Amino acid sequence: MSTPEQEVEYRQHRFSPPPGATEIFLVRHGESAPAKGDDPFDLVDGQADPDLAPEGRDHAERVGRRLADERIAALYVTTLRRTSQTAAPLAAKLGLTPEVEADLREIHLGDWENGLFRRYTHEGHPIVERLWREQRWDVIPGAETMESFGGRIKAAVGRLAAANPDRRIAVFTHGGVIGEVFAQASAAGNRFAFLGADNGSISHLVVSGDDWMVRRFNDTSHLQSPFG
Fold this sequence. Notes:
Protein name: Histidine phosphatase family protein
Order of helices and strands: EEEHEHEHHHEHEE
GO molecular function, one term: phosphatase activity
Strand order of the largest sheet: 5-4-6-1-7-8
Pfam family, one: His_Phos_1
Helix content: 25-40%
InterPro entries: His_Pase_superF_clade-1, His_PPase_superfam, PGM_Phosphatase
Distance between the termini: 64 Å
Region (Disordered): 1-20, 30-61
Strand content: 15-25%
Number of strands: 8
Structural class: alpha/beta
Largest sheet: 6 strands, mixed
């Protein structure tokens, strides 16, 4: 007696990275120390280099716990110490030594380095209004040009992907950098569309050749923060 053929089912596709692709977890450093007019930050190549605040060290511990079981093969930090301090708990858990990728350092704010950007944003400086209106960092006197910033970010991501095929890596970097990466990945007309990743947040990019695929942005579930 014949039996009816089993009906073929076609389930929804679940994403998997293409062969040779690199998964990059971009972690914004934990909250850094507040700027104080009478106690300027140390500078590295003209850029402010504050330590993590106590809240930032808590962010770092939470990031370490969140990513400890995610098959991370390599860690990268920038030349600014708040990234290496944020990476330290995960590095200890994985037994990995972070490598420095200098070109993923924060946008250089020119005359507004050393806490002045925070101050002028708080005070409502007219150039801050222009910055948001025009979506350009380089309206700030002496700031790095958008072309220079975007070019070095694109080149750095390409280098990391080329060095890590079929691997997952974690990159501890900065809010402006994450915003630029995701603006480029999404071809957003608004250059600042992804500006504002929270301290200690994790964003996820898949790079396959010239294709940059967004998987998640500003994941803060490990920080136990309510929607703001």
